Amino acid sequence: MSTAAALSPRIVRVKETMRGRLAGRRDACLRRRTETRAWYQARGIGELAALTARWLRGEMLWTPNGHVGGPDPETLPLVDVLAGLNLAGILTETSQPGERAVLHGRPWRQRAYVTAFVADPKPARALAAQAAKAGLIVRAYRPGRRVDENGERDAVDVTTWEGHGVMTGTGDRISPRAVRRIFPGCDRQAVREVATAWQITLIDPQWGRNTVLWPFLTRFLKSPQAAPAFHPSIGESCQEMAPRCGGYVATVSRAAAMLSGVPCPAGIPTVEGKAGVWPSHMACAPWVTHHPVACRSYHAPLGLGEEIHA
To answer: What are the residue ranges spanned by the domains of the chain?
Structure first.
């Protein structure tokens, strides 16, 4: 067998490997471009929260602040409750589980906590009040306020490492400039909604514990004060979905259209997150996302584009 003949299968394998790598890079670039466009076109805090839920669940890999590849391993056990908060319109910013460990021979301690933005003051107040009753440390900042409801403004230590002191503190106010750094390149109005929302931080006072904060949040999501998280099946009409969605309205999301890769059919307008209005087309499809908005009553049946009067 000649040398050329012997090398031929190896050359073929190398070429196939190169093609596979190039295809993988091309797909990764396309996915990042699509996801970036979805974040940049989100038109409000609700759509940012919906995209955050998708990222938490591994349906997206990229976030505007550069966190690539999904949540950290320590966050994976918390994905369901964090995604539920976002689908209920509570935009989570940072979180961590409680933990006690030894790192390089020295004790490492974490308190469980979550920080979130809440646009609607009613669930924000309910969340803060119920968390305080549950024995959690609460930092609740009204829009524009530099001190919380109890007159506090200092951060709370949530991560310490013996010999190195405090590693992480949280619970202080997040400035509008810091909010813009969290969502660089995103729609100005959406970022403005985040910056002018209530800021809620809930912290477990006991180091290493995970049996208070996360069960509390799970219960809160099931309470009347929180909007229900629901997931209509593809092809289910809005009328069929409405009786079990808790009286909340479905809206068409431009971000969902971008992520699905399927544009809305020509000639069908979309309703961008407007409370109290049905989508202009009633059949649910891959480019339609349903998330709670601020409508507290439901009158059915409705015609296309009819308004709901609270």
So the answer is: 37-221, 230-310
